[in-house]
Design a protein that fits this description.
The complex is a heterodimer of chains A (534) and B (250). Chain A is an alpha+beta fold and 534 residues long. Helix content of chain A is 30%, strand content 27%. Chain A has a six-stranded antiparallel β-barrel with strand order 14-15-16-17-18-19. In chain A, helix 5 crosses helix 12 and helix 14 packs parallel to helix 15. The two termini of chain A are 64 Å apart. Chain B contains six helices and eleven strands. Chain B is 24% helix and 26% strand. Classes of the chains: A alpha+beta (534), B alpha/beta (250). Chains A and B meet through helix 15, strand 12, strand 14, strand 16 and strand 17 of A and helix 2, helix 3, strand 4, strand 5 and helix 4 of B.
Chain lengths: 534, 250
């Protein structure tokens, strides 16, 4: 989708037809020697990579707008997620492309032709120009999508005799890029008959995906197309190009003579259940109904693979290219349908259907092995399991960082000595922390400054004022000196002298003096109240 | 077991008034007897008012009662945490803890009720600041019913709130009291002590008690406060001889 950036901008600014002369707009990015054109409308007739000053010289009325590269990348990321409706393996490729491994997927969409039609139609509905190529090798798909001037799609015949079977099996890939004119069905079917190398022959050598250096060398040598390059004897090519990215390897990869490892490691897909709706449904209760259908399907898969869910994602695919997601995490691996449904059912109401959902996906994105569990002989569930389910329910409703368990950390500073972990880091059993009687029962999140009367420089405190209340100290114990953690904090961090104090009415507090006079890290030391004893 | 036998069983062999840490499900104890705190037979909802919002005494009092061994769900409302601090696990004394940080009283009450339905929990403690609208008679009654039905003790700590209409079965007002003598250091604060007032309870007479943790934090000692100051009835904490020895040296 090389027109992705400009089409996104046009959509945001409300323009309908960018060929209109009033829309002579170029999106520019800052570069080392001034601004470069990143994308431009058709009316502007500027190529990407032109300097803005050059473009302005030709057309003084050209408007320049700063390109939102991060926004484009964000959109592409969302489109990649949305594209997972066709295949689980989707990769973002550069700043305007998506790559999908569609091996064994096409038949679900009425064959390869049907798949490509579907992709094109859905992207067209989003108002994005896209160009699809489906080929037996990654390189070929890349080149055809970007540089082929012919039909949008090519179906090379199976690579009989050209590559070993492993590569041929490895996968067809789909690539998109701009169609100069919408291809007709006839052209597509015709292209299926042609041979891969014939198809690739007219492409420029840039389509080899080589760095600029070797590409430039090839062009200087007069080898402008892949066809010309293929005509050169292999031995002389191998002799001329010895670097890692050499044209010979690139050509072999493109034609399937050489393996090109997948970027995404082929891993076992997580258990997932999908449901496709005949037409988009905008009713908010659709997600709830879909969940009811999907959970038993997923649980079946989990049981077959002996897995338990730790994180569960419900995706609603919207017709406008968005994916609405609801995520729930569990403290212990589980595959109990009732519990899983209960976790997500409240969140389904929050899924925004927009113009309607046309597919739902329930995926266990994080699983752990879970063998067959002994059912309790009495009705009551096991304690550990019951507590874990409680934590899941609380987390789903209140948020992941709101329901937490304490964990001991290796630090002397009180606020660091005890950390909190959320549901995803819950251990199978809760463990009580070691008791330290000199620590308060309650700790303020941020120590509060107090005014203290004390015998300087390091005497005991006598009286302090906290939140406008004066406390006369009747008993005091301390100091307990805690040095700053020099490996973590800035050099000017001061030590703390902690005192346990009790006021006249018996209320007990934990206060500290930060620093001592003359430690060279600031002026007079400040006092803080940090905790309350029970 | 007859009531008198129960009392005898609770009394420790040396006749002191120490109570074991029996937790929220303590056996029923006569409220007018010295050395005993009234505590309901079955788990139910108690309400503990801190006499001062910036007094941690109510926390200590509850922790002295909580049964160990089962996880504890501690729900804190945002304002309660800002005013009186977040609970600090190293100081809690070995309880298994799940902490809930609730946005407001409504969320806190919901989390408490959800927790009460899980009978694997030891107790559910909720801290609410002030008198929020969500905390009305219906809400407290729901908690009390859930606690009784599922057998999980519930306790509502009220900071800076008023004792309005409530469905809680026992309502306490707790204040810190000057602590016991430290066994080794006369100037240092010793084991915690509290003044507890039971101002409303079902099945018990209201009263005031002085409560002190013993020096090892192992149990609590209770004295019923009939006159203004009967704190001397609290059994001495710790090793007295060592204190005297220190004094002689000093």
């Amino acid at each position: 989708m090389p027109r992705l950036a400009i089409e996104r901008w046009l959509k945001a600014s409300g323009a309908s037809d960018d060929a209109d002369e009033t829309w002579r707009v170029a999106l520019v990015v800052e570069a080392a020697h001034g601004q470069l054109v990143h994308a431009a409308t058709r009316a502007a007739r500027v190529r990407r990579g032109t300097r803005l000053t050059d473009a302005r010289a030709l057309d003084p009325g050209l408007q320049a707008v700063t390109a939102d590269v991060a926004g484009d990348a964000d959109l592409l990321g969302r489109l990649a997620r949305w594209a997972s409706r066709w295949s689980p393996l989707v990769e973002i490729d550069g700043e305007d492309g998506l790559r999908m491994d569609v091996s064994g997927v096409a038949h679900l969409f009425g064959g390869e032709a049907g798949l490509v039609c579907d992709i094109e139609a859905r992207f067209a509905r989003l108002g994005l120009t896209c160009r699809v190529a489906l080929a037996a090798t990654t390189g070929a798909a890349w080149g055809l999508a970007r540089f082929s001037t012919g039909p949008s799609l090519s179906f090379p015949s199976p690579l009989a005799g050209e590559g070993d079977s492993a590569i041929a099996e490895r996968g067809e890939r789909v690539r998109r890029s701009p169609p100069p004119h919408p291809p007709t069905r006839g052209e597509r079917l015709e292209s299926k008959e042609r041979d891969l190398s014939d198809l690739l022959a007219p492409l420029p050598v840039t389509a080899l995906r080589l760095p600029p250096g070797p590409t430039r060398t090839l062009e200087l040598l007069g080898l402008k197309t892949i066809g010309q390059l293929a005509g050169v004897p292999r031995r002389s090519l191998a002799r001329r190009f010895r670097e890692a990215d050499n044209p010979l390897d690139a050509l072999d990869r493109m034609l399937g003579r050489k393996a090109e490892p997948l970027t995404a490691a082929p891993c076992e897909a997580p258990p997932r259940a999908t449901i496709r709706l005949a037409e988009p449904v905008a009713d908010p209760s659709a997600a709830r109904q879909a969940l009811g259908l999907l959970v038993p399907k997923l649980v079946e898969q989990l049981a077959a693979r002996r897995l338990g869910v730790r994180r569960l994602i419900l995706c609603g695919y919207r017709v406008d290219g968005e994916v609405a997601m609801a995520v729930a995490a569990t403290a212990l691996p589980t595959r109990e349908a009732k519990h899983l449904r209960r976790l997500l059912v409240d969140k389904t109401d929050e899924l925004d259907p927009g113009f309607g959902f046309d597919a739902f996906l329930l995926e266990a994105s994080w699983c752990e092995s879970l063998g067959a569990a002994q059912e309790s002989l009495v009705e009551e569930p096991r304690g550990e399991r019951a507590v874990a389910e409680l934590v899941d329910r609380l987390t789903v409703k209140l948020g992941a960082d709101k329901v937490r368990r304490p964990v001991a950390r290796g630090s002397h500073l009180p606020e660091r000595a005890s950390g909190w972990v959320g549901v995803e880091d819950f251990l199978p059993t809760l463990r009580a922390m070691a008791v330290n009687p000199s620590r308060p029962q309650r700790l303020l999140d941020h120590p509060e400054a107090i005014g203290v009367i004390y015998a300087t420089p390091e005497g005991l405190p006598r009286r302090f004022t906290w939140r406008r209340g004066v406390h006369d100290i009747s008993r005091v114990e301390g100091p307990e000196r805690i040095a700053p953690e020099w490996w973590r904090e800035r050099a000017s961090a001061r030590l703390r002298d902690y005192y346990r104090v009790e006021d006249a009415s018996g209320r007990r507090f934990w206060i500290y003096r930060e620093g001592v006079i003359g430690d060279g890290r600031g002026g007079a030391p400040e006092w803080y109240l940090h905790g309350l004893f029970g | 077991m007859a009531d008198g036998e129960q009392r005898a069983a609770n009394r420790s062999p040396n006749g002191s008034t120490a109570l074991p840490r029996t937790g929220f499900n303590a056996e029923r104890i006569g409220s007018d007897q010295e050395g005993r705190l009234p505590w309901p037979e079955a788990p139910t909802l108690s309400e503990v008012f801190a006499s001062n919002a910036r007094d941690g005494g109510a926390t200590g009092f509850l922790l002295a009662q909580v049964a160990r061994g089962k996880p504890l769900l501690w729900v804190q409302e945002r304002m309660a945490m800002l005013e009186a601090g977040r609970i600090y696990p190293p100081g809690l004394g070995g309880v298994e803890l799940i902490h809930v940080d609730a946005r407001d009283a409504r969320a806190a009450l919901w989390a408490m009720e959800e927790g009460l339905r899980c009978s694997a929990l030891g107790a559910v403690i909720g801290e609410i600041w002030g008198d929020p609208k969500a905390l009305d008679f219906t809400a407290t009654r729901r908690l009390a019913v859930a606690a009784e039905r599922y057998g999980v003790a519930a306790c509502l700590i009220r900071l800076g709130g008023h004792a309005n209409l409530s469905g809680a079965r026992m309502r306490w007002r707790i204040a810190s009291a000057p602590s016991a003598k430290h066994p080794l250091d006369a100037k240092a604060p010793g084991a915690a002590a509290w003044d507890a007032e039971l101002f409303r309870a079902r099945g018990f007479a209201p009263g005031r008690w002085s409560i002190a943790c013993d020096a090892h934090g192992q149990g609590i000692q209770v004295s019923h406060e009939k006159s203004a100051d009967r704190r001397h009835l609290v059994a001495a904490a710790g090793d007295r001889a060592l204190v005297e020895g220190e004094r002689r040296v000093g």
